Each structure stands twice: as C-alpha cells, then as structure tokens.
C-alpha cells in the first residue's frame, strides 16, 4: 500500500467533505462521527461531484448524497443505498496520523455489501 498525504484533518469539515484533486482522480475526504473516509468524488449515476452533497448517517450507514438526484453512497463500501444510482463508487483506504490524512488511491477497496 502506498499512502499519500492528501490534506490536514483540520481542513475536513466535521460531518462534511473536502474535494481533493489528485493527478488522475478526484477524491472526497469525508468526516462523520469521528471517522474519516475517502471515496471517489463522482456519482456513478451522473458525473456530479459527491462533495456537493450532504454527509449523514442513514439507517446506521455513513453516507454521502449526490446533490443532483439524491442517490446516497455508503462511505465504507461505495455501494449506492438508493436509486437512481445502481453502480458503486470506489472507496480508498484511509489513515490519519496526527493531523495528516493519508489515502491510498492506488488500492481501491472492493465494493461489498455490509
């Protein structure tokens, strides 16, 4: 695994997200209930940044919502939790060291159901 520092934890809003533009991918770094997640910053249904949407806990699942059509994605798995999206979004391993958020964009986690 190759973790890369993408931002400071203090830059990520509590219960919100921060768009990180890397060389070949845009990542949403999300903070919710003290946990930090990284998910590709594009809805699989429409080419819309997920960072434009709300972050919330829905039925026990940490999610980010697409602001255009309302699909939500589980931040742990990338799976959509409602329509119209039917395809998952890649999620990435995250590590927090002090105030540094490190993400391994070279090793997306396989989408699974929880």
UniProtKB/TrEMBL annotation:
<keyword id="KW-0479">Metal-binding</keyword>
<feature type="domain" description="Rieske">
    <location>
        <begin position="4"/>
        <end position="103"/>
    </location>
</feature>
<dbReference type="InterPro" id="IPR017941">
    <property type="entry name" value="Rieske_2Fe-2S"/>
</dbReference>
<keyword id="KW-0001">2Fe-2S</keyword>
<dbReference type="GO" id="GO:0046872">
    <property type="term" value="F:metal ion binding"/>
</dbReference>
<dbReference type="GO" id="GO:0016705">
    <property type="term" value="F:oxidoreductase activity, acting on paired donors, with incorporation or reduction of molecular oxygen"/>
</dbReference>
<protein>
    <submittedName>
        <fullName>2Fe-2S ferredoxin</fullName>
    </submittedName>
</protein>
<dbReference type="Pfam" id="PF00355">
    <property type="entry name" value="Rieske"/>
</dbReference>
<dbReference type="GO" id="GO:0051537">
    <property type="term" value="F:2 iron, 2 sulfur cluster binding"/>
</dbReference>
<dbReference type="InterPro" id="IPR036922">
    <property type="entry name" value="Rieske_2Fe-2S_sf"/>
</dbReference>
<keyword id="KW-0408">Iron</keyword>
<dbReference type="GO" id="GO:0004497">
    <property type="term" value="F:monooxygenase activity"/>
</dbReference>
<keyword id="KW-0411">Iron-sulfur</keyword>
